[in-house]
Amino acid sequence: MCGIIGYTGRKKAAPIILDGLKRLEYRGYDSAGIALLTRREDLGLRREDYGFQVVKQKGRLAALEENPKTAKLEGFTGIGHTRWATHGEPSDINSHPHLGGSNRVAIVHNGIIENYKQLKAKLESKGARFVSQTDSEVIAQLAEHYYSGDLIDALIKTFNALQGSFALGVMCVDNPDIIIAVRKDNPLIIGVSEHGNFIASDVPAVLNHTNKVYYMEDGEIAVINKDEVTFINSDKEVITKPQTTVTWGVDDAEKGGYPHFMLKEITEQPKVLNDTVNITFNEGENKKTIDKIDFLMFNRIVITACGSAYNAGLCGRYVFEKLCRRSVEVELASEFRYKDPIIDEKTLVILVSQSGETADTIAAMREAKARGAATLGIVNVIGSTIAKESALCLFTAAGPEIAVATTKAFSAQLILLYALALKAAANMGRLTEGALLKLEDEIRALPAKAAEILENVDVLQKYSSNCIGYKSVFFIGRNIDYAIAAEGSLKLKEISYIHSEAYAGGELKHGTISLIEDNTLVVTISNNPALHGKIMSNAEQVISRGANVLLLGNCGGARFEDCGNEKITFIKLPCCHELFSPSLSAIALQLFAYYIAANKGLDVDKPRNLAKSVTVE
Ligand code: G6P
After folding, report:
1. Is the confidence at residue 250, as pLDDT, over 80?
2. 409: Cβ contacts below 8 Å, ≥ 6 apart
3. 575 Cβ partners below 8 Å, 6+ apart?
4. Is 612 a residue of the active site?
5. Which of 186, 304, 308 to mutate to test the pocket of ligand 1 (most atoms within 8 A of CB)?
6. pLDDT tens per residue, range 106-161
7. What are phi and psi of 341, to 5 degrees?
């Protein structure tokens, strides 16, 4: 939901800011913009002729890069923005940076200002003239309204007046070497390098220059110039913060020869699974954290998340319930806090989030904490809000995930949910030591099986390439296969724009089967030998109404002899325990969606209207 970057240093700012924006484009790509300042003494200008150089443009970052005005940008200090529109359509004028009425202050903003209408009316009554339809412009106008020579004072007053969420980069013509950053409920990091300093929404934006970063906290103000970074609080007292060295490098955030980040990230999954297993089941931080959890303290377990992370939770529920014989609830985080959730100090609320910054998941976490529940994050981004605020946190070792549609982080989330379910079952006396070790071995075997799917990718690639003409695709499964069907359906629709729905195999006939006709594809997932006959009956029901079936599963060849039917294509997945089969089905379903979208020539990594990190409600 919008990416912001700022740089001040000894190098030319424009190329650095554009490169950073490229790495933040996953956060939004409706429009992009940049504002630079050069010292007026360097330009030999009079005060009245001096100001920001601003270029902003609707569309992808490439449009901004190609704008001839961008090539003319000069200066060593600047801010940039890539937008996911909330207030006001994507347009040049609504793009960031926004300037105050007398062009003295420029801002880039990620978040939503909830009281912008009231603030705007107040400022207009005092003569301010707004040019955009955005909520963000009010920040620039307000900062100028309060400005009387001390930018920090003006910004403190501005922040105090704002309601909502914001990560901000601010510049002022009177301080051309300084960028000020502040956050409330939206992520912001400060990067320090030998040639200058940065503000950014996320680490990949600065990795080309430094791996030394500070993670900002709500209410902190960072003042950066080319040589130093100072953190202060709202009383202007200096704060000391720990610096973090990021362990992954710029290569991790590059395509590395793949046509899309999504394919690269799908292909990385054997390693990601292996790394996550290592830090969770061998010696590692996750293991230490899991060892601390006493599941006997809880009489209720709730998993809450959004998007694919929610689907991981759906899979996790089956594993918990099967192994622990305890019911587990899975709630959409966007609904959780509005349903007056029945939770108390005997509830464990598990928050699953790749980014750790999804607004609804953060709100669910805070709601759970306010009601006294224990909170446990499953997060990919170290230093993110959920990582910091949840009582305990487990980390997925997925590394940076750039494609908007998650793949490897989802797979790593599954591993952590399996691990928690195993620990809970052992804690509750439901698993003998021997049974526990056997299940752990099944999980340890998953990376090699994931690699096997990827080694045989040609079959899926060929099949999927012939599916681009489908208008509608249904995904069916039973039990845990139904949970992973939901993820398969989401993956397909979000990147290929083909309508898709996931149904429990037995439920299709209660309405949805009326949509099945010639040339509907039904992806049927079957990993549970006990339910194979049942799901095959459901497949037969759709075939007899004209559908084609792609059967994905691992139950063993003999059971699939019925695949002689020419309407069925069977792609066999490696054998594994049914409870952990989502890890393998997921990879096949991701590849299926990927090859369809890629063959349609779509922008797979940046599907329309979506953003990777959804920091607004
Ligand atoms: C967006 C992404 C999804 C992701 C969801 C939740 O919709 O496109 O891939 O599953 O947000 O994000 P989170 O960072 O909380 O896992």
Report:
1. no
2. 354, 380, 396, 398, 401
3. 554, 556
4. yes
5. 308
6. 999 999 899 999 999 999 999 999 999 999 999 999 999 999 999 999 999 999 99
7. -60, 145
